[in-house]
Amino acid sequence: MDEVADVLLAIILVGGILVLTRPGSQGPGLVKALTTGFSSSLKVATGQ
């Protein structure tokens, strides 16, 4: 059963990477927004 779960997880990860790197995709903008939000959260939490 674990092998089946590993294969399904690999398929999902590869599919996600392909969607994010496809030409014309909004993936890079999504990644930038997430990292900017995380960075802002850290600045608020540390008081910088």
Low-confidence stretches: none
Given the structure, what is the number of helices?
A: 2
Distance between the termini: 47 Å
In which range does the helix fraction lie?
A: over 70%
Overall morphology: flat
Radius of gyration over alpha carbons?
16 Å
How would you summarize the topology of this molecule?
Elements: H1 2-21, H2 27-46
Question: What would you say about this model in short?
Answer:
The chain has helices at 2-21, 27-46. The chain is mostly helical and 48 residues long.
What can you tell me about this protein's structure?
It contains 2 helices and no strands. With 48 residues, the protein is mainly α. It is flat, with a radius of gyration of 16 Å. Helices cover 83% and strands 0% of the residues.
Annotation keywords:
single chain; mainly alpha; 48 residues
